[in-house]
Amino acid sequence: MKKHRKTSRSKFEAGQLASDAAFWVSVSLLVVVPLVFSRWVNAIYALPKFAVLLTGSSVLVLLLIRTALKPSRNEMWGRIVKSRYAKSVCLYFVAIAISTIFGVASLVSLFGSNSNFMGLIARLCFLVCFISLIASIGASEKRLLTTLWAMALAGGLVAAYACSQFFGLDFFVPASVYTFNSDGAKIVRVGSSIGHADHLGNFLLYTTPLSLGLAFASRGGARLVASVATLLSIAAIVCSGTRGAWLGIIVGIGAMALLEFKVETAKRILINKRQLTRVIAVACVLLAAAMLIAFSPSSRSIIERAKLMMTEGASSSGRLLLWRDSIKMIPRFAIVGCGPEGFRKAFPVYKSEQLAQLSPRANNESPHNAYLETAISYGLPGAAVYVLIIASALAFMLRARRHARSQSWRIITTGLLASFLAVLSHNVFIFDQISTGLYFFALLAVAFALPEIAGQSASQDKDGHPIRTAPASARRQPESGNKASPLWRRVGVTAPACVLVVAAAWYSIGLLKVEMAYTELFNPSRPPDYQAILSQEERITNNPLPTGAYDFLYARALNLFAQQISNPASSAARFAARGSDLGAIRTEALRLAISHTEKSLAHTNTPDWNYSFLASLALVTGETEKLRWAAAEAVKWDPGNYYARWLMAEAYIACGEREQAKREAETALKLYPPSPEAASALARATGQISADDVAGIMARARNTRLNVKRSAEELIEIARQFSEAGKLQKARTKLFVAIGRAGGRCANCHRELAIVYERMGRYSDAITEWGSFSQESPDPASAEQARARTAELQARMAKP
Fold first, then answer.
1. What CATH number is given for 522-707 in this structure?
2. What's domain 712-798's architecture?
3. pLDDT tens digit sequence for 74-119
4. Measured in whole angstroms, how far is the alpha carbon of residue 288 from the centre of its chain?
5. Axis crossing angle, helix 2-35 with helix 46-68, rounded to the nearest 10
6. How many Cβ atoms from other residues are within 10 Å of residue 129's Cβ?
7. Which helix (H) or strand (E) holds 562?
8. What is the DSSP secondary-structure string of 122-164?
9. C-alpha closest to that of 630 among 663, 657, 597, 668
């Protein structure tokens, strides 16, 4: 009998060890995933996070299975299985799986693209982490607090790195990665370890109000740590220049203030000298940080982004146009959706000419609205479940706050609620990446555990029964009626889980090796060598990702090498010329690039890019039939791509169909007026230049493209497009340049500038510009129009 008890105890303790391990692996993922990145791979930020997430989640599957097989854990698993909330989350992933099967790019939707890795596999990892956190936290207050502190500290570390980037202290990546040119000035938009400023802002919204809640609920050193994390996070959000995140943090902090900081609280702080001193100290720190940021050379980016936020609002970067065009997709994908990462493939045919002119060669990978993306990617049923999950999580948090057993738990719950509201606000302008997607489901898991833990008394629940936290359960003997699962069942269930762990590790390592090999091709310390590129072919193209994405990348590397050796003065040409025929090497490299591009076409979610690239290669090699076929496919996939239109014009010219070539070249110029390629094609189609002059014209165009001075009329047209798209500040800048470029009278410049000022709400400036328009325009009707507009604006200004 004694031996039997010992065996039962060891089996029970094994189950508890599995639960403990699952908890710590889950918490480790919450810390490591947002922080990990590597310059040794091409996808610097996405792939390392995906590799860690996939490997860690596969380990969690094994640990969760081991936990579920123990009789002592059946009660906990039963609670999860019976929960409508957990069922709703699982139903959401069912909708994602269905959209993956029936979507527009099933393989990419399953594995993810090689730039984001946000396919079904990554999203299933989120589900595993969600279940693991619920199962391992259970009713343990200590574990819930540990999870919250892990999220807050991860946010603080990410924010600290972002702040160091803002002040020019970055020891990991060059500043050029997050520095951009805007109207001749350098704009810094830090991305920290998240990668992009927009996603950095979104990630920090998950942790900033939470950190603030923990700071108020803690004492001593813990309060100091949480306070520093909060201040760093707010500073990082400001430095990121992400206007949606600015709105989100205002919503989050505002929600906390509305729920917690009443008039009585303010009076109590003013009376209590110690608390008043702390408030003054925090205010001084915030003021010092604001002054430090203001005097930094990088502060220009914040000022410019703030100006655009005031003038452009939601229309920034063509957001409203993108949303308008994306909504057109809903009827087609209302039932099952286009699948994860399928938007990039499905969207171009819905893109309007106006949006195409704003981004002539680029296409959006998302509608930049999490709710709209859900409806398009997973169908309206998936969107409905998504909204239900959000509403349920909010209800859990509100219930936990209402029944909180202490002031500390109430303010922690308020911080969680404020974080969630901040994220939901910013999600109107953003979409999830790996770090933010993981934290979204972590927050959902915390919301599930919160009411039971925050609403219980210190030692009893509402019915007066003792609380069984995880440590207490570990000491409790199993009941005699519970029997362990048979050995054959345990082996049969855990063996596939072990295989899954091995497969996940193999897949992650394989992807990392491929990306490291590809990155090595562009090592600046080594001159380009064709034999070295060929030696990497098998390592790059024989990879675990079956979508053909790396064939396309390898083809682009070959094309780049061919371009380099075309210039006799380049180091690549000098290196390759040692005993070799450069022409033969170039031809071989281009034909190999065509071969790999064709392999990439089967499952790509960027067919417009792939076909355009194939057509450009065929143009260089003189393969007319392939050029015409590939260009026609590129136009079919993206009618608004000027580059595809230009290639189609080149195909028609090669076939002698000048009228069709003229039409395509004119379309390309309409989409992108500064295009020298389209201008050359149009000139040749109309017989203005001969084919022998093409090479020289194209070379001069490429060399002088950045220095071309547009005429005043061209600038006015560009400004009008910016104005119609809501980019008022950019339109204003273009019109100022146009006035200077005109060198004299420019009535249309002042007219368009007046319209821009009206849209900005600067009526006084608009009246001045209408006056200039009236003086410079010789048309009497123009003077009448100016007087009418001036009178209307004066009436608006007179209104209180």
1. 1.25.40.10
2. Alpha Horseshoe (1.25)
3. 566 677 778 899 999 999 999 999 999 999 999 999 999 999 999 9
4. 31
5. 160
6. 25
7. helix 549-566
8. HHHHHHHHHHHHHHHHTT-HHHHHHHHHHHHHHHHHHHHHHHH
9. 597
